[in-house]
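Standup notes, protein team

Yesterday: finished cleaning the Gomphillus americanus set.
Today: Autophagy-related protein 14 structure.
Blockers: none.

Input for Autophagy-related protein 14:
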Amino acid sequence: MATHGRQCQVCQRAPDARLAFNCRTCAQEAVYLPRLELAKILLLKGSLSKEVEKIAKGSQVGQSQDSSSNEPSDSTTNSLICESARSQYRLIAARTQIILDDSRSMQEEIEKMRTQLADMNASIAKRKRALKAATQEIRYEEETSVSPLQENIVSLNSTWDKLHDRVLHDRHILPKELASLYGLQTRKRRRGLSSHDDFILSGVPIFNIKELNNAAVEHLNASTYHVAHLIHLAAHYLGLRLPAEISLATAGQAFTYIYPLMSSYKAPDLSFGSRESSVGKFPSRRRLLWIDRPLPQLAIEDPQAYSLYLDAVILLAWDVAWLAKTQGIDVGSKGWEDICLVGKNLWDLFGKSSGNLNEESRRPPSKDIVQGKEHFSNSSRSFSHSSAHNFLNAAGPTGAAEYMKTWKYTTPNKIIEIIKSALAHERMGADWEVLEKPEERIAEDETDENTVFKSKRKDNLPPTMGNAPHG
């Protein structure tokens, strides 16, 4: 129990009249002194009442009265001291009992919390064992189910690759057969000590863009028509859509057209008989693959038609090169001249090993291909738009789109400008070569006076087609 004026040992707070009580001990301490004073007053009152009674009765007189009057005061003091000691003892005993009760309660709570902690640890250990067992079971299930599934996926992918190779092999048969039916062939031609290959399609030499200025009109029109027809059907068989759309001649459309890349596949799909009436609706979109006069003459008489026709022929040659590139043939590595060699690119695409292909195409398909026992070693760089396998527009670091981005000539605009410039230089150079005649012949031919005057500037001519810069 706390003494008066000191800090309470239970609530650890000094007594203060302005603050409320926090515990029973503080309350008892607050009323202790008033109770003690009250007890003293009551005892004094009792002793005084007794003295008054004795005086009233007259039972004592003189010395005895004085002694009797002093004795009660001493006994009263002693009784008050004893009562105070007993009250102090009771307060200490009560405080001690409270502390003991609180201690026992705290001990019980501690034991209870220890029991709960032990139960939680046991539950956690049990859950850890269950988690470990479940993890082991999952790993076992992965080993027993996922691994065979992955092996099955690998097997299916392998079978898919082999089936795709078979489909790809069969798909290449049709354009090769088509080229064979068109009479695609090559012939050796000698020029002095050197020789080079001439490529024939339907009995007509395939045009070479570098030799357009010297090409005959009939041969050029027939060659461009046959090449356009061949690659249009070949792209269909290979499941590809040519970047520069080709519109073949029909009963309602007298000529073959080719569209620039930005205008391809954007014109409405017109029905038969209505295409001719729509020619004026899209005048700037398509290019005519036909001329009625030699190119040098056309360049002089109609420069706009000359430019559009060159666009058409170069777009056709670029379509052939693009088609070869999608089938894994390296085109354009040596420069823009590779794009000009239309016959060579067609021969690389459809002409090589045509005899062996015809024999193999007549064999019945083997059942082993379904079981994954047969594999055709076709090029992995043979893409198309009609299958998910080797899809041409597939993204990713190993996709076909990334492969096509490595090509130097993904768009024909640069090639068109280079070839137009080279053809113009060659045409101007050819004009000057015609004007180089003996002096006696020039004197006899009075109609060439103007050209003789022009020949004085021959030293300032640009390079010819063969010396044009590479793209």
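Follow-up from PR in the comments: Residues 270-283, 354-380, 432-471 have pLDDT under 50 and may be disordered.
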